[in-house]
Amino acid sequence: MPSAARRGRRPGSPDTRASILAEARSLFAAQGYAATSVRAVAAAAGVDAALVHHYFGTKDDLFLAALQAPLDPRSVLLPVAEGGVDGAGERLLRTFLSVWDDEVTRLPLLALVRTVFDPDRRQMVRDGLMRMVLGPVGAALGVDQPELRMSLVGSQLMGLVLARYVVEVEPLASASADQLVAAYAPTLQRYLDGPLT
Amino acid sequence: MPSAARRGRRPGSPDTRASILAEARSLFAAQGYAATSVRAVAAAAGVDAALVHHYFGTKDDLFLAALQAPLDPRSVLLPVAEGGVDGAGERLLRTFLSVWDDEVTRLPLLALVRTVFDPDRRQMVRDGLMRMVLGPVGAALGVDQPELRMSLVGSQLMGLVLARYVVEVEPLASASADQLVAAYAPTLQRYLDGPLT
Question: pLDDT-derived band of residue B7, with 50, 70 and 90 as boundaries?
């Protein structure tokens, strides 16, 4: 007779969960997001796909767990997109700064940014950036040329991260959110809906 | 009697040169550019300051050697500044792309960019960026609020490096110089001489 603790629960243990996560990280890194299925992760870990869903949710959730993302960018960015493209440059920047100015999220995000210099992890960061952050925002805002426009936005935000939080260039490192909005929001807004040619 | 090879040369050897460079790197990294004198580097290496100048030239030259910079940014950037602030955004970007699109300079520059994540080296990268690249360009162009304007320029260029050459986000990774100029030159130009508040 099964013990009370196991009754009604699917088989698994902390080791199983860690093993699934390790296989997911390995497959996402080696093959990219698109070519990696939950079924393949489950097979590599020697478990059923249903158990992967049980522990981690959707493939996107599994991917964010594999990335060790400290937050779900989709839920953070949803309010930015809801307001439409007018003023989205400023809203995106204010949301971005609120996440990065908070040490609790900044430190794990910095660890993630650092991995772009690891060739084995670069593909995961690229997938994460495009599929979890820039892609959904571009789609929700309905911008034209979404890949170009959102990668321009991403390049300015990545540069702001490097300058303000990594290299700590002054006056950017000490600037207030309002000062940064005055400088950067027009750039982001033009990348979202201005002329690019 | 001294050998022919040594006649007319100051004392020194490849080991002395390497030792000076190692001490310079250590002092610049620990104390920053401003607080490090050629005299202090010479003392740490146990040689005369004149020998440091003999091997490396000025303090700026010694600093660039310690950074392992693959080029002298001052000579590369001089033509950008000579044309005045009108159109400087586009000239700066084209010069920047010509340096970064060339693998011979790109690979050592990428090695340098990677060191910003090393806390012991970060100060050197910051000093190098501000004193050798952004500072001289801002001064030569005569922009107002040079620290703010040039650090904004630097943040967009750093982000372009990360997006195009490190993360390799498309379409930025494959874009032509003309396409990048169309997208980025107006941003850089506004950072140089446009309204920021």
Answer: very low
User: Burial, A44: exposed, middle or buried (Cβ in 10 Å; 0-12, 13-18, 19+)?
Assistant: middle
Q: Which of B157, B168, B172 is facing A159, going by the closest CB pair?
A: B157
* CATH for B14-67 (1.10.10.10, 3.40.50.1110, 1.10.10.60, 3.10.50.40): 1.10.10.60
Rounded to a whole number of angstroms, the distance from the CA of A188 to the nearest CA of chain B is 9
Place of tokens 């009754």: A7
Token readout for A11 is: 């088989």
Rounded CA separation B76/A9 (Å): 66
Task: State how far the Cα of A43 lies from the Cα of A50, in Å rounded to an integer.
Answer: 11
| ipTM surpassing 0.90 | no
Of A129, A156, A196, the CB nearest to B156: A156
pTM for the full model? 0.84
CA distance A107 to A104: 6
